[in-house]
Specification:
Elements (H helix, E strand, L loop, with lengths): L1 H17 L13 E4 L3 E3 L2 E3 L8 E5 L5 E5 L19 E7 L2 E6 L2 E12 L2 E3 L1
Antiparallel strand pairs: 1-4, 2-3, 4-5, 6-7, 7-8, 8-9
Length: 123
């Protein structure tokens, strides 16, 4: 009986010490789904395209980045909306509140930089 208790205590202690409070490798932001509400290129706001209202972008906690069509009913026939296949894109932390998008073929090349501004993610 004492051996079981000892094993139980060792197990509990090892579980306590194996937990980590370091969240840098698993940040809470920008994990989740995002919808485009504004586009800015070289400091100039540009008009949203017809697909922007229907595409949802997602950032997963395993650093995968992708997108999907939320509602195809509002997309005019003959319009092709691009989605990002989640096996092709990754995201990484550049610095606090700044995140980079990379392509699977070229992980050292940052395609887009996203920045947290308040509760929004700006590209």
């Amino acid at each position: 009986m004492k051996t079981r208790r000892l094993i139980f205590y060792i197990l509990i202690v090892s579980l306590l010490f194996s937990c980590s409070s370091d969240n840098d490798s698993n940040p809470e932001f920008p994990i989740g789904e995002w919808k485009v509400t504004k586009r800015v290129v070289s400091g100039q706001e540009i008009e949203l395209n017809v697909c922007d209202a229907h595409v949802i972008y997602f950032f997963r906690d395993d650093f995968v980045l992708g997108s999907y069509l939320n509602n195809q009913n509002g997309i005019p026939s003959g319009t092709a909306c691009l989605i990002w296949m989640d096996f092709l894109y990754k995201w990484e932390i550049i610095e606090e509140n700044k995140f980079g998008q990379t392509h699977a073929c070229c992980p050292d090349n940052i395609i887009t930089i996203y920045e947290k501004v308040g509760s929004k993610l700006i590209a």
